[in-house]
Specification:
- The model has no long low-confidence stretch (mean pLDDT 85).
- It is built from no helices and 28 strands.
- Helices cover 0% and strands 58% of the residues.
């Protein structure tokens, strides 16, 4: 067990491999980077197998392009838990449209795969980025599970969640986020997703795009949302329940 408690740092880098029963915990830390040439304030390059990685009650604040960046594999049994953190990057994004994570400032960036049995848990995080063409959250799990509850807050940013192969039991709720640019929740069209729960509530955004790919069993709900564009699509679907309550769409509405 490796515990990092209450240090002040300009940059944190994690590497190596955490195996069965091991854990790396960061609690009440201040990672403050004021040098824009330092690309990432908190870099995770470690491999996790049947182990725990947890960041809680921590500030990661940077002038660099990435506040938090994870770029190695998370295998079965591993849990990444992000709780009660303040995440900010003030880096001026270099893109003007589209989703190009290599050119955009990102708060939480998972560029690697979650395998079957791996879990990403996010709760009560406040994420702020420096421009409208930056990402608060960019995550690409493979066969793992996301648990993203309604206590996470974002502002002035994009969110991109992309499933690259079969996933199950994902729980993604977004609530009370403001001035969002785009929210994309996407799956591939060659695999069936099962038991998905996705909800967006009390949020302002320019566009929301939910591309289900192939799904067998899903609950999708929008409530108290103000949008310019709402698009929900699927290549194939069975047992999908869609709820829309008190939603304002200024331009394009397509399901």
């Amino acid at each position: 067990i490796l515990v990092l408690t209450r240090p002040d740092a300009g940059r944190v880098t994690l590497a190596g491999e955490f195996k069965v029963g091991s854990s790396y915990q960061v609690d009440q830390c201040n990672v403050i980077n004021t040098v824009s040439t330092i690309t990432t304030a908190f870099m995770n390059s470690a491999i996790f197998r049947d182990s725990l990685f947890e960041i809680r009650r921590t500030v990661i604040d940077t002038n660099g392009i990435f506040a938090f960046y994870s770029n190695n594999h998370i295998y079965a049994g591993a849990v990444h838990r992000l709780v009660n953190n303040f995440i900010r990057t003030t880096y001026p994004s270099r893109i003007t449209s589209g989703n190009a994570p290599r050119q955009a400032a990102i708060g939480y960036y998972y560029a690697t795969y979650f395998y079957v049995g791996a879990v990403l848990e996010m709760s009560n995080n406040e994420v702020s980025v420096g421009s409208n063409y930056s990402y608060g959250l960019y995550v690409r799990p493979s066969k793992g599970r996301i648990i993203h509850d309604d206590t996470n807050r974002y502002s002035d940013s994009h969110i991109y969640v992309y499933h690259t192969t079969t996933a199950a039991n994902n729980f993604f709720i977004l609530n009370q986020s403001s001035n969002m640019q785009s929210i994309v929740y996407s799956g591939v069209a060659t695999s069936d997703y099962t038991d998905e729960i996705v909800g967006i509530y009390n949020t302002d955004a320019i566009s929301v795009n939910v591309d289900l790919g192939r799904v067998a069993g899903m609950s999708l709900t929008f409530g108290g949302v103000r949008l310019n564009t709402l698009v929900v699509s699927a290549a194939k679907y069975t047992t999908v329940n869609v709820g829309i309550v008190n939603v304002s769409v200024a331009s394009t509405f397509s399901i």
